[in-house]
Amino acid sequence: MGFVQSIKSCMAKSIDFSGRASRSEFWWFILFLSILHTVLANLFSQSEMAFSLHFGIIFQFGLDAPWWANLYTAIFGLPLISVFVRRAHDIGVGEDKICAALFICLAAYTILLKLSPTPNTQQWLLIIVALVFIAGFLLIATKRSDLLNNRFGPNPHSNPTEVPS
């Protein structure tokens, strides 16, 4: 799947959490979000001399966030979550496992935060939990597709006219 086709697919399937998404569909969409976020952040930057590069999955929402960040999050937040879930489906991981892993990370962080004696320890706990979350994200995003059909649908790389035997 190419760059433009990936963007069209992800935006069209923004509320479709069923089926599978290939690695190329997922990573082309991440590249698009990164480029768009970098352009918007630098276009509306308060500093005239600064240039910043953004990874694109940074979402800000609220009264203290710039207007363009709220709009960016409102438009692209759901399509990114949807393509990530479909990408997880492509390797055989369901929403239940994603939610369980997210809940465990947040619960562990909350419990450890209450037990930690100093702000420095709390900061290190946040870094550790963030690294575990990033590792899980990368594992799902980079793993090869299941070659055969799985419980979430046919392989996105297979020819749709082929009949599986």
UniProtKB/TrEMBL annotation:
<feature type="transmembrane region" description="Helical">
    <location>
        <begin position="26"/>
        <end position="45"/>
    </location>
</feature>
<keyword id="KW-0812">Transmembrane</keyword>
<feature type="transmembrane region" description="Helical">
    <location>
        <begin position="122"/>
        <end position="141"/>
    </location>
</feature>
<protein>
    <submittedName>
        <fullName>DUF805 domain-containing protein</fullName>
    </submittedName>
</protein>
<dbReference type="Pfam" id="PF05656">
    <property type="entry name" value="DUF805"/>
</dbReference>
<feature type="transmembrane region" description="Helical">
    <location>
        <begin position="98"/>
        <end position="116"/>
    </location>
</feature>
<keyword id="KW-0472">Membrane</keyword>
<dbReference type="InterPro" id="IPR008523">
    <property type="entry name" value="DUF805"/>
</dbReference>
<keyword id="KW-1133">Transmembrane helix</keyword>
<feature type="transmembrane region" description="Helical">
    <location>
        <begin position="65"/>
        <end position="86"/>
    </location>
</feature>
